[in-house]
Amino acid sequence: MIKSEISKLKYEIPFSKMHGAGNDFIVFETNKVKRLDGTENEITLKELQEITLKLSHRKLGVGFDQAIIINNDPKVLKSAHYEMIVINSDGEQATMCGNGVRCFSKYIIDNCIESKSLNGTPKEEENGDIEQKIETLAGLVITYPKILHHLNQYNLMMIKVNMNNALVLKTNQFKDEEFENVLNKGVTDEKAYIYTINDLSLPQCNQLECVLVSMGNPHCVIFLERNIELGNLSEDTSNLSTMKIDEIAIKLQKLPLFKDGCNVEFVSTKHSKTTNRVISRVFERGTGETLACGTGACGVAVASILMSHCDKDKEVTVSMPGGDLLIQWSNETGEVFKTGPACTVFNSNIKI
Length: 352
Known about the structure:
The chain is of the alpha+beta class. The chain has helices at 45-56, 98-111, 224-229, 246-253, 272-275, 294-306; strands at residues 11-20, 23-29, 34-35, 66-71, 82-88, 93-94, 132-136, 139-145, 156-165, 194-197, 208-214, 218-223, 263-268, 277-284, 288-290, 316-320, 323-329, 335-351.
């Protein structure tokens, strides 16, 4: 009789399945991952990537766009209360996730996660705000969970996030020192963010005008009506909801122009000047098309303001298939603020 080897279970993980505007995640704490062999060694990044790959499959696992992992003892930024580790569904680590950081923030509130640097949880300020300082690979991100908000529900919380400054995206086209790092409408040279990509050799187009923005991660924004006006796209691509974006996005992501790929946003600006609202679909690197992307919404809003599709003095609404995100680009500090929902779908425990 042939004995088949059964792989041993290695980890037990308590987690929450969450989403931010339809961008879905598994959220858990590093120190709550239990080794089933009884050892207590700290979980490594390689192991977290292995866990993510096993659980991310939509048919064979929990299914999600990214794993959002909480460490309550950040090592790099002394001012941080927590560290957020983001791993895409393909197992690659990401620098930042705008929708994920809202779910991260809600998870901390829901589970009263103590910060070792604070010896407790962040305290409520006089104005009722709670300020959470979160270390990411893109730098320090500050979240403000809106405990009292008219859109809050039993499983949903509105959260405002300081996404820091919008930056010039560093590409292989220019030397890093050629432009100032921070994007500023009316100050930054247009050559730093408007780029025409040629020789695409695709059925839909051969060239595209793109607006490049960094929100700590790279974004390539394509305005449909602008590219139709330039003759880069045909009129039959004007319906964003039915447009086939995969082939274009994958081609752009693989271009040598980008140092580490890019997230690609397709944007319709119909009526944007009267409503300060744009409609967007996003194709994320390492994941594919998602229902929403927080940093993508920020990149889209910044690009829309840079190209005068929207007014910087007003809040920009970025509508995506998963819902709306509200973006403000501060005239005073240049910081970008994003407000949107974080929703808990269910809590569970799994052994893998």
